[in-house]
Amino acid sequence: METNQHAKSRVRKLCRAVALACAMLPFASQASTYQPAGIDLGATTFNDAFGSVEPGWTTIQLLQYENNNHFYTNTGSQSPAFKNAELHAFVWLPQLIYTSPLHFLGGALGLTALLPVTSLNSHSDEINPYAPTLTARSGFGDITFGPFLQFAPIISGGRPVFVQRFEFDVIAPTGAYDPNKLVNPGSGFWSLNPYWSATFLPTAKTEVSVRLHYLYNLRNDNPGINNPFQVPDIANFQAGQAVWANFAASYKVLPNVEVGINGFYFRQITDDRVNGQSQSAARTTNLSLGPGAEWAIDRSNFVFANLYLPVVERNTYSGVHVNLRWIHAF
What we know:
By secondary structure, the chain is mainly beta.
């Protein structure tokens, strides 16, 4: 039988190995090795804080493609965990939004829910019999739902100059999750994800948007990192807390077309925990930037196209990330 010290040493080594290996994939770009499915990294961009304050329904359809072919350690160097690894993700993300007739603190109360549908394909060459191969499965991701408070734009000089929205989302572990796979559409644990979105319009043709997120992850009592390495010591796992921002700025080149730059910056602020013990060598940083455009077809239909390229990556995987999003108000 192993001593407690030896067992803890094996747990620490395992966590470092899996942090290199990458464990779970959410929609909208994977932030971290262990962060949940369903978080919004770059899915929202220009004029983000605008929304209806009148009762009614809105739908958002997001199509996304990711080609992840770089895997990074906590120091930002290439991970030795895989050889010739690639992870391709096709995601369809339908979202439904309801704005109620109720008002609170001057804003309209509403509810939203979204459900990712993913197709994941992975490949890696075997390094040795003890190293993991990059395995993945497809299916439904985790449901995200929550209330929001949408405010009407502040008008100055006959035009909007500022608008904001608050939302408190819950990510439920309803997605496909196989502890024998390193990459899953579902996370296997609950998460809380409040955010504040704001759009500033300094001129009639320019806008700057930011969405500030906080993420708290609950415990996973069936961590997939048990099975690939056959280590029975890990009974539970908890991904660290994180903050991140989606940001964008655009200029109106035509009456109904805006072009600009978009990006997101993700930072894990607390350690992951294994069996209640902090793991100090696996925090994630992720900065991606790229161009984008918005086409206002009419007052009820808006189309966004966004490209993201990795800039700074720590303890994560990355690559080219493309979004196509359609908003329709009924």
